[in-house]
Amino acid sequence: MSEKSMLSSRLFFYLVTISMFLLILSSVFLLECSNTSIIPRSVFERILVNSTSVYFKPSFRSEQITSPFTPSGDTQINVERPVRSGKLACQVNNSSRKMPSPGKHRNMECVPSQAHLRVFMYDLPPEFHFGLLGWKGRVNQTWPNVSNPSRIPTYPGGLNLQHSIEYWLTLDLLSSNTPNVLRPCSAIRVKNSSQADIIFVPFFSSLSYNKHSKLHGKEKVSVNQMLQRKLVQFLWGQEEWKRLGGKDHLIIAHHPNSMLDARSKLGSARFVLADFGRYPVEIANLGKDIIAPYRHLVRTISNGESAPFDKRPILAYFQGAIYRKDGGFIRQELYYLLKNEKDIHFTFGSIQGKGISSAGQGMASSKFCLNIAGDTPSSNRLFDAIASHCVPVIISDQIELPFEDVLDYSQFCLFVRASDAVKKGYLLDLLRGIKQDNWTRMWENLKEIAHHFDYHYPSQPNDAVDMIWEAVSRKISSLRISLHRGNRYKRSLSLVQNN
Ligand SMILES: *[C@@H]1O[C@H](CO)[C@@H](O)[C@H](O)[C@H]1NC(C)=O
Ligand SMILES: *[C@@H]1O[C@H](CO)[C@@H](O)[C@H](O)[C@H]1NC(C)=O
Ligand SMILES: *[C@@H]1O[C@H](CO)[C@@H](O)[C@H](O)[C@H]1NC(C)=O
Ligand SMILES: *[C@@H]1O[C@H](CO)[C@@H](O)[C@H](O)[C@H]1NC(C)=O
Ligand SMILES: *[C@@H]1O[C@H](CO)[C@@H](O)[C@H](O)[C@H]1NC(C)=O
Ligand SMILES: *[C@@H]1O[C@H](CO)[C@@H](O)[C@H](O)[C@H]1NC(C)=O
Ligand SMILES: *[C@@H]1O[C@H](CO)[C@@H](O)[C@H](O)[C@H]1NC(C)=O
């Protein structure tokens, strides 16, 4: 062996040794880090503790969720923004990543580098949002002051509340910039749209549909239609919209009839919906859109007052309107099959006013609550059942469920195909066949997940608002992948042309 080759092989040996050492060091570092930060706070914490729980193990890691995203169509990557990858997160103290438990107070500020989702919100005039609640600010004031939770504008009650998701999300964004409001740091409003992961459109579309669809006097278009037209004009004119053709915009259209005129024009955006029942698949689909829970009408019962198996005399509970069209014929079929059973409560009529509290009592005294497809695949009833810790029986083949990528509904709901449910005796045999221990397991799971379906102001860790932001954050990672893939050759070519 020549001296030269000996020297180079020795050099090679050192190199290998050093790199192996570095490799081991970095994996140790990563492992330590993962204890506190790779799987972020929120629901995923539980997975590590108990793999038999109702939560799915997510198949992604937080780097993917939180890596920076430049919505601008140009090829500039914003390098100044902190990368919230494992490495950086590990430098953040455990205390600052930790979520306050509900009711507990948090002292630190929520800053954009810690939030999972940076949201730019258009300053639409109040007629699109709080103006619809009758709120009037000072001249040129766009948003109400939300620093005092007891003085925020209130959303109309009754059935309107079911679709009030627009209100809770907008309030939450406003409060993310308000000092002294204690909330989880999942989403934060940023004032510069090129620093945002998603562009939020603060239009109260469900309220606009519910309250302003009627024509008054000589009007040719309703306020609801007028607002939708204005919104389309506005959005199409924005630089933010033009960058990606609206793909990074988030529009809330929870009432199945909201945004009826504008939905196809704005169909490239992401929608927050109750279900896909009234949408063609190219406008709304699970690939881009988010299913949000209804805001339930009955009050959430506490775990302490939740009646166990033998304190719930009613086997199955259903109260709802009767429908003859679409999937709803099944309600009638089931009514004839079940109406003579003593331990079954099955009545028609929508719940309103006093009916709501009696429905709440009924559900809280029932082992199972039937959730039967009506004129839309989803309904508020499922979330009323969950709030009452009454095991939902879902008879709705087309239903879409909120947060199903992290929640395994089969752990706390029964699913029955419509074609089976209408067979004589099928449903009764099924429900009577579920004995106390199996029912109790589902009930325990219900108690554990019920808070994911509660809307609060200020929002609370893992409540519905927090869960929706997390769901948005998971969804946009696929947008980033397609954006970055699209840049592959485009970017390389543009470099050549510039030289
Ligand atoms: C995991 O969950 C199961 C069922 O929910 C429960 O019986 C068990 O005690 C839990 N284990 C831990 C470590 O929490
Ligand atoms: C981390 O926490 C320690 C105490 O536990 C504190 O002294 C230190 O300043 C914290 N570091 C940061 C970056 O907050
Ligand atoms: C992490 O948190 C625990 C308590 O939750 C605390 O005792 C410990 O000092 C913290 N460690 C650091 C590095 O801040
Ligand atoms: C309201 O805004 C308009 C246009 O930006 C401006 O001319 C006017 O001075 C503002 N009024 C007040 C009271 O700030
Ligand atoms: C909002 O109201 C609080 C008092 O409730 C006040 O301290 C604060 O300055 C107000 N903020 C704005 C922007 O007016
Ligand atoms: C917004 O952010 C971009 C990229 O970080 C920056 O170039 C631009 O100057 C910012 N605009 C404003 C108004 O701060
Ligand atoms: C019901 O419980 C029994 C024992 O407790 C168990 O063997 C069985 O698998 C359970 N059935 C279902 C459908 O969970």
Automatic annotation (TrEMBL):
The keyword Thylakoid does not apply. Keywords: Glycosyltransferase, Golgi apparatus, Membrane, Signal-anchor, Transferase, Transmembrane, Transmembrane helix. One of its GO terms (cellular component) is Golgi membrane. The keyword Transmembrane helix applies. It comes from the Eukaryota. The chain crosses the membrane at residues 12-31. Residues 114-428 form the Exostosin GT47 domain. It is found in: Golgi apparatus membrane. It is a single-pass type II membrane protein. GO terms for molecular function: glycosyltransferase activity. InterPro entries: Exostosin, Exostosin_GT47. Belongs to the glycosyltransferase 47 family. PANTHER family: EXOSTOSIN HEPARAN SULFATE GLYCOSYLTRANSFERASE -RELATED, OS08G0438600 PROTEIN. This is Exostosin GT47 domain-containing protein. It comes from Carpinus fangiana.
